[in-house]
Amino acid sequence: MSDRIAIGVIRKAHGVRGEASIEPWTDAPDRFDELVSVTLVSPDERETREVAIESVRAHGERALVKFAGIDSPEAVQLLHNWTLEIPEADARTLDADEYFLHDLVGLTLVDAAGKTRGVVVDLYEGGGGLLLNVERADGKTFELPFAAELCTEIDLAAKKMVVQLPEGLDDLDAVAD
């Protein structure tokens, strides 16, 4: 397990000087302005590369980042889909109702009646927001929107999330059994 957290991903080269267009994975867009260096991690997580940041500027929903020693669009394209990671110790302080997404993976979902519904095995951004991919005890999976009205209590220390399941999910369980 890594002691780093990903804050964005390289999507493409921008311009001719080696700037990278970064899709931020943080809701604090100015976060990139504070960085001096990052660890770049390959999509298969087999390679890493420590790089200094020369400049950052906003570009719509993305950040344009110039890394030291990466001076052409071709060099940036070789880093397509590499993540930008920082030490977890350097992560910003969260408010009481905020969570790092990586902290949600591994949480056991329990409904209001105390019944275990599954374990969060993955999460991703869907068309309507963040979706939790939950694996049940029988190995089947389902998706649950990560929303306050559905995920009513999160206890990271206990690795537990209390959920109010959407209507119909119980019916799907009965059909699947």
Order of helices and strands: EEEEEHEEEEEEEH
Number of domains: 2
Biggest sheet layout: 6 strands, antiparallel, barrel
Taking Cα atoms only, what radius of gyration do you get, to the nearest Å? 19 Å
Outline type: elongated
Strand content: over 45%
Q: Kindly name the structural category.
A: mainly beta
CATH level-4 homologous superfamily of the largest domain: RimM
Key descriptive features of the protein:
mainly beta, single chain, Elongation Factor Tu (Ef-tu), domain 3, 2 helices, 177 residues, disordered C terminus, six-stranded mixed β-sheet, six-stranded antiparallel beta barrel, 46% strand, elongated, SH3 type barrels
Structural features, described:
The structure is a single chain. The chain contains 2 helices and 12 strands, in the order βββββαβββββββα. The longest helix is centred in the last third of the chain and has 8 residues, at 169-176. It is elongated, with a radius of gyration of 19 Å. The two termini are 35 Å apart. It has helices at residues 73-77, 169-176, and strands at residues 4-14, 19-24, 37-41, 48-59, 62-67, 83-87, 108-111, 116-126, 129-135, 141-145, 151-155, 160-163. It folds into 2 domains: 4-90, Elongation Factor Tu (Ef-tu), domain 3 (Beta Barrel); 101-176, PRC-barrel domain (SH3 type barrels).
Summarize the topology.
Layout lengths: L3 E11 L4 E6 L12 E5 L6 E12 L2 E6 L5 H5 L5 E5 L20 E4 L4 E11 L2 E7 L5 E5 L5 E5 L4 E4 L5 H8 L1
Parallel strand pairs: 7-12
Antiparallel strand pairs: 1-2, 1-6, 2-5, 3-4, 3-6, 4-5, 7-8, 8-9, 9-10, 11-12
